[in-house]
Specification:
Layout (H helix, E strand, L loop, with lengths): L2 H4 L4 H15 L3 H16 L2 H4 L7 H14 L19
Length: 90
């Protein structure tokens, strides 16, 4: 069941709060964001998994470039960012 269906604050709201907090606290916000996205990519198995829903969009292109600039264009450093168990992206 999704967060919105449970009546909780949804993940978009939680993410926005985390981003706002990081903007206020992180000296290198871009580096922080790249690391967060790299960790997410590592935990779902690949950089491509992050953009699987809309791989041709300009947003996906920018996400891919940010993450690949961090983990390598072939995900060669992706394992350095793994925090949890690898799961299916969907």
């Amino acid at each position: 069941m999704s967060d919105a269906m449970r009546g909780d604050v949804n993940y978009t709201d939680r993410a926005a709060r985390a981003v706002i907090e990081a903007v206020r606290e992180e000296h290198d916000f871009g580096g922080w964001l790249a690391g967060v996205l790299a960790t997410a990519a590592a935990d779902v198995g690949s950089t491509a998994a992050l953009i699987a829903g809309r791989p041709g969009s300009w947003e996906a292109d920018l996400v891919q470039r940010l993450v690949c600039g961090t983990v390598g264009w072939n995900d060669e450093y992706l394992s350095n960012y793994r925090k949890g168990a690898t799961t299916d992206a969907r």
